[in-house]
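To fix ideas at the outset, we first show an illustrative case, written as a sequence plus integers encoding its fold:
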Amino acid sequence: MKPTQFAYDRPETVDEALELLDEHHDAELLAGNQSLGIIMANRFASPERLVDINRLDGLAFVDISDDEIEIGAMTRHRTLERHDDLRSVLELVPESAEQIAGPAVRNRGTMGGSIAEADPAGNYPAVLAALGGELHVASVDGERTIPADDYFVGYMFTDLEEHELITSVSFPREPFPQERTGSAFVELKRGSQTWPTVSAATAVRVDDPSRETPLVEESRLAVGNAAGIPLRIDDALAELAGEPLSEDALDSVAEAVREAADPTDEMHADREYKSEMAGEYAIRSLRKSYERACGN
């Protein structure tokens, strides 16, 4: 099957792209084309116009400063996967990128495209939610910043307006000092080219990595594909503070995840299985983050 007929624009600048979006509210943005093309080919979507933003090279960057990490919306998965400086300060982001599908997808897919799609099984939505990140978006009316907590509204539904373009995402560094923080992304999936059945993104800060049993100062967790939006259990995580990360504490987190989970049935995983695995992979990710924070 082939897509229906559509108009095609390829702007050279962000301003030109924004003008097109303002003029054609029914237009679809084309970034990495790792999802939209498939949907159109199967005629699950038939947009009348595509705005191809692959020439907006200014939106492809990784900026690491003392205060935050900012990543341009057109930054490819492969760039993030292989970014050694980024891995050294926040391993969670490259680790999530390297687990996306196969090399062909990672060579073309973009961070902004994945977050705009907001599929609950996507890697970056969980990362964004776990780290308390922000999205920076632009339109002909100006720019605005959307906290991750406000961005994800429902299943593949966000706070992004039709005429807005995601320009970058940023993650604060203040809660996660490099020398005392560990982060991790783990996922369960049937094969490299499939979506994760569940995933978990975590970050853990400890008080003193040189201690025999460092204490957790703060922990973050978001579980992917366990609900319509990235699943957070902040109240349960708050109980980890001031203690080593024990097996009893991890079991409590897993139980909180299972109780909060509201996944949809899939062909190879029903609700009960996905809820159980959501708790299990939350444990695995937290344990991995804690070990990294402790220097292991």
In short: The first strand starts at residue 7 and ends at 9.
